[in-house]
Amino acid sequence: METIVGRRGRRSRIAVFAFAACLGAAGCSQSLDDYLNETSGSTGDETITTGGEEPVETTTTMPVPVEFIAFGDAADCRGRDAEVAALVDESEADILFVGDAAYPDGSAEDFANCFLPLYGDDLARFHAVPGDNDYKTSGASEFFSVFGTSAGAPGAGWFVFETNGWQIIGMNSECDEVGGCDEGSPQYQWLQATLAAAPDACRLAFWQLPRFTSSANYQEINRLGPLYDLLYDARTDLLLVGNSHHYERFDRLGKDGSTDDRGIRNITVGTGGAPLTEFAPEPRAGSAVRNNKSHGFLRLSLLPNEYSWTFVGATEQSDLVDSGASSCVKSES
Q1: DSSP code, position 43
Q2: Which one, of 286, 268, 187, lies nearest residue 227 by Cα?
Q3: Which of 46, 199, 233, 272 is the most buried (most CB within 10 A)?
Q4: 75 within 8 A of 101, measured Cβ to Cβ
């Protein structure tokens, strides 16, 4: 006879996601172990009894989630950027920055006046991709000077790193500035090789311009289609973008923007402080959540084969509540 006490598995994953959600809220006083114990009803060890043998204690090591926060469209000197920066200071997570760091032109003066007073002490936490406003200064030269290697090579602006079973891919959506985004372009060839190098990873990609959007101010960027299609074929889980100054989360989308169970979850998080902008009267198909009243950031918790997200508002006007959890696409096939 075999008896297993304190079996972990799905309940443990629920505990980890509950802990991640707690971290996204103020006043979280419990540790991950507290959540695991509450969920499993055990101390974290398993007792296995077989036949008449004495119980054998085994220790189960649970993976710890890696935390990121994501936002873009930040230092405006006339918006709510200081409130978002204050909230960012309360977190120790690395930052996935989706472009347009310093308004209006990404110049040395704009960075000195608006961005560096807020984030100068946090630069080591940034993984940043450039936006269209950053390129109003030739070659986004000040952007690359400020962020250094955390933004990829100057003149390119794409990079990759891996953590906790995830491939994190930063890319440059200003195609005309980097030799295009079509097949055969330098960035396309780099992305193709990058995806092939980690076939079993969960994937998160981020760039600035939205491939799909319900914005009243910006169009969908069709020239990003070849890069998006590569990401889709590699079963990418998340694509984070900015440019549209609001929050919008889509259901998983396929190559043509239709809902697709094995598609990419697109999230626009242009909520870093610049004045918020309007949505079109009718939302785009697949749009699940839209909000243009809330500045703040998206908190992400990444586990091998799983992830969760929570939007964290930075101002009293922030009324957005959006959180969830999902398995990676590759683990569902």
Answers
A1: S
A2: 187
A3: 272
A4: yes
Per DSSP, the three-state class of 8 is coil
Q: Which helix (H) or strand (E) holds 70?
A: strand 66-71
- Rounded CA-CA distance 218/203 in Å is 26
* 242 and 105 share one domain: yes
Collapse the DSSP code of 331 into the 3-class scheme (helix H, G, I; strand E, B; otherwise coil) and give the result. Answer: helix
Say how far apart CA 220 and CA 285 lie, in whole Å.
Answer: 13
Nearest residue to 207 (alpha-carbon basis) of 327, 311, 60, 96: 96
Q: Which domain holds residue 17?
A: 2-59
In the chain, how many domains are there?
A: 2
Split at pLDDT 50, 70, 90, the class of 217 is: confident
The CA-atom distances, in angstroms, between 17 and each of 12, 146, 237, 262 are 9, 35, 17, 22
Asked whether the beta carbons of 235 and 195 are under 8 A apart, the reply is: no
* 38 and 105 both lie in a single domain: no
Contacts of 143 (CB under 8 A, 6+ apart): 101, 102, 106, 128, 130, 134, 137, 151
Give the integer Cα–Cα distance in Å for 106 and 276. 19
74: CB partners within 8 A, 6+ apart:
81, 84, 85, 97, 100, 101, 102, 115, 118, 119, 272, 273, 274
Verify that 37 and 154 share a domain, yes or no: no
Confidence band for 77, pLDDT divided at 50, 70 and 90: confident
Average pLDDT of the segment spanning 54-66: 74
Average pLDDT, the chain: 86
Using CA atoms in the order 195, 201, 207, 212, what is the torsion angle rounded to 10 degrees? 100
What percent helix, strand, coil does the chain show, rounded to 5? Answer: 30, 25, 45
Q: Are residues 95 and 25 in the same domain?
A: no
Are residues 40 and 103 located together in one domain of the fold? Answer: no
